[in-house]
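In response to a reviewer's request, we include the raw inputs and outputs for one of the modeled complexes. The two entities were modeled together in a single run.
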Amino acid sequence: MATTMISPVQPQKPWKATKLELLPTVLILLGTVIATYVFVAVTPMKGKLAYAFIFFVFGTSAISIRNWVKLGRAAAKDALASSIAFTGAAIVFLPVISILWTTIYKGVPGLHWTLFTQSMFTASYSDPVSKGGLLHALVGTLYLIFISIIVSVPMGILTALYLTEIKGRGSKFIQFVVQAMSGVPSVVAGLFIFAALIVSTPIKASGIAGAFALSILMIPTVTRTAQEVLMLVPNDLREAGQALGATQWRTVAMIVVPAARNGLITATILGVARIAGETAPLLFTIGGSDNLNWNPFKDYQGALPFYVWKGLLLGTPESIQRAWTGILVLLTLVLILFVLARTLGGRRMKK
Amino acid sequence: MSATISQRPVPPAAREITTKPRRSDRVFRGVVTGFGMASLAILTLIGLFLALRGFQTFKHEGLHFLTGVKWESVTSDTGKVTTDFGVGAMLIGTVLIACVALVVGVPLSVLSALYLSFYVPERLKKLLVSVVDLMAAFPSILYGLWGFFVLMPMVEYWAKLLYKYLRWIPIFDAPQPFFERSPFVAGIVLAIMIIPIVTSVSREIFAQTPLDRVQAAYALGATRWAMIKTVVLPFGSSGIVGGAMLGLGRAFGETVAVFSVLNIVFKVNFHILYGTGGNIASMIILKWGEATGDETKALLAAGFILFVLTLLVNMLANFIVRRTLKSGK
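The model returned the following structure tokens for the whole complex.
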């Protein structure tokens, strides 16, 4: 008796526009398209820019005027602001679409299997694209990423632990320093490694020097993300650890860090995504070799951004094609890392 | 009987209750604090090493290093090398390009941050926010390549239009109608590159707007725009300034993308449409290839100037942003 079926109530949205109310909007849109076309055809203006601009002006004013007539001045202003905000956002997103599309469109013709099995040792950048490959650059980039992770992830996470767990007297200042460090231009990081290591120590231009330069850029990224994640760990967990008699060291090592594990991996991935495509620091530090070098501690090393850079500088059609294909491979790498970081980060949020 | 008693498990001795940290804790705190200080050490070392290696140049050129507009190293017949290094033109070029980037990029960023915070349909929000973050993850060489092949032809057309109709405004004038690889093009590329950071900082600040004030505005019958104008913008304006300055720091230090689309000439040029410009960071990689001895030192000195410049801008920006974020809580 108590269990009478309760049919789920559909939420009502009385403010939602009915089909009849939508009609004028559609008509205005249609009218604007036609008016734009006619206006551009009649006046001496031409080109996509003119169409876009006139469409924006006509559309915005049409909607604003309609709102003014129907609802008054405040509504007209509101409509004007909405369409300007929308246009601004649209302009921001256009380059992304263009960049992704251009990279695929121009990069794909240069893809072939030897790309991943050969280096540029025997080929020159101006040779037909089917000769040579970017194996050396791929190996170099993977080495750079690997060494940078080894250097910067412990540093980043420990710095984040200092900021969240110890909260010493200096932590506000260190926070400030980390933020300042994340603004260090990449070219300065390269110059620093050149001035500090390559000139005066036995470490010469090689994979490891490049990785050190990249670490300078990676540490602040890892620190800031790790710090955000560690702050999300509920204080209850820390207190529970203390209440069980654990020392702070054991609380952090066995409770806080494992609880934030996924987030810390995200921090690492975001750090890698930050440095994978850096070019400027490598120009001073890795030498940019064209042949395969398995030893990151000795001799010049190649890297994907460097490969693209060389192709762009040379400027022949074949080398440009190589640059586009190289950037396609690099962008794919960055995209994979980005999606990985997102899914891991998303899972953490759900918890 | 006594045997069973002796077999009873002996409870472990209770730990002494003390406020003194144990040794493991002391080690832990020491190590973590040490690593916390490491970033400070790195930052100091960067400044120190660049200043040290560039010291000779600073000493030799003096203040002229900042104001001079030439970058030459001439070897005379007798083998004597006379150098004249100055980053003045490049400094002006850096600021000029960054200003173009700010003028174009900041309004767009604020608009898209407003759109993402208050207008976007809930379904699209996550995707679009990810896209903005993705923009920040694009390698700068990709912006360079795309800027050179896709954006540059388009922007040159805009430059011609600006020159045709607006050349009565001094900055849109040009000594000759030569618009290729101009500071304007570089500024537009940089604008696109700083949009993600300015957008995400602005969005973060808009999200901190006190909800009670937002709801109060709506309750008084404000439209969305009226609410934004009276609540969000006054609250967030100083944060937007901070975000813009973070963008400025990025724009000062950008290297590869600017190098790809800029015609670097050692000359002071205030005409943004004219194809002559400079930027300290890209000048460094332009000159690095053939640099030896004194010139390398001069380039390291230029790097030091760039480092100090970006550090100051960034510190100020972070200070402003943090203050605004705090005031919302």
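As requested, we also summarize the result in words. Chain B touches chain A through 94 residues (CB under 8 Å). Chain B has two domains: 23-84, 88-327.
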